[in-house]
Specification:
Layout (H helix, E strand, L loop, with lengths): L4 E7 L3 E6 L4 E5 L15 H4 L3 E3 L2 E3 L5 E2 L1 H7 L1 E2 L2
Antiparallel strand pairs: 1-2, 2-3, 3-7, 4-5, 5-6
């Protein structure tokens, strides 16, 4: 099982700074998803900024979410 998200911060250009329970920090790019289904709503920067950690993953108020494994495996580590 991959580490779980304990904190999330929105950054420029629809990216997220994620902090995992193993103290790693990674950046996840949401842009590739913004033209798909319910993720289109997140093009509104006000809505995008409302992301919160949720049960080891992240979720927006509109119900958009990513699984913790997707976030950990596809995010880029901070150097």
């Amino acid at each position: 099982m991959n580490p779980r998200v304990i904190n999330v911060q929105t950054k420029e250009n629809y990216t997220l700074l994620l902090t995992f329970d193993n103290s790693e920090q990674k950046v996840f790019d949401v842009k590739p998803f913004l033209d798909k289904g319910i993720f289109k709503e997140l093009k509104d920067k006000n809505k995008f900024s409302q992301v919160k950690p949720f049960l080891g993953s992240i979720q927006w108020q509109g119900g958009q979410d990513f699984c913790a494994d997707t976030l950990y495996e596809n995010a880029i580590p901070l150097v």
